[in-house]
Amino acid sequence: MRDDRSGDSGVIGMSEFALRVLRTVAPEEVAAFEPDLSVHLRQAHSRLRDGGRPSRDIACGSGIELVDVVAPAALYVCVALGAALTEGVTVPLTRATERSVSRLARRLFGRPAPSESGITPGAFTAQQLAAIHADALTEAGRLLPGEQAKTVADGIVACLTLRDGA
C-alpha cells in the first residue's frame, strides 16, 4: 500500500509514515500487515478515539509456537503521535472541514469519512525530535517491553528525520 501524498513538498500521509516506521522497527512483520494496513490503522484510530489501547500481550502463532508481534503497538503509537504532530498545524481548518464532511459521509454511507493528515519528515528540530522520542517511548512502553519500546521510538524518530523514508 502506498500513500504517496508527498509530491515535491515532502509531506506524507499517515499510511506511508506508519509503513515506513513498520519497515524500520519490524521488517519481518511488514508482509503480514501491509495488505490490510488501512484496516489496522482504522483500528488504531478507533482505539485512540475511544481511549483504549491494544493489548500489551500481543502475540500470534500457529498454536504451537507464539511469536511476539511489534506491529500493532508500533501502528498504534504512529497513529497517536501522528495525530499530535499534525494537530498543531491543521486543527482549526481540519476540525471545521471534518465535521461537515463527516456529517455528509454519515448521511450518505452511514459511517465517518476517513481523514488523513500529512507529516513532513525532515521538518523537525532536534528539540522537537527529542520530545517526540520521549512521547513515543512512553506510549510504546505501555504496550511493549523496554527494548522493543525503545526500538519503536527510535524508528519513529528515524522516519521523521529522513525525508525520503527509511
**Protein structure class:** mainly alpha
Number of strands: 4
Strand order of the largest sheet: 1-4
Query: Describe the biggest sheet?
Result: 2 strands, antiparallel
Helix content: 55-70%
Please provide the ordered H/E string of secondary-structure elements. Answer: EHHHEEHEHH
- Residue stretches low in confidence (pLDDT < 50, at least 5 long) are 1-7, 56-67, 89-94
Distance between the ends: 16 Å
Radius of gyration: 16 Å
Number of helical stretches of at least 4 residues: 6
Mean pLDDT: 75
Describe the 3D structure.
- Residues 1-7, 56-67 and 89-94 have low confidence and may be disordered.
- The protein has helices at 14-25, 30-33, 37-50, 71-109, 126-141, 146-161, and strands at residues 12-13, 59-61, 66-68, 118-119.
- It has a two-stranded antiparallel sheet with strand order 1-4. A two-stranded antiparallel ribbon has the order 2-3.
- It has 166 residues and is mainly α.
- It is 61% helix and 6% strand.
- The protein contains 6 helices and 4 strands.
- It starts with 11 loop residues before the first strand and ends in a 5-residue tail after the last helix.
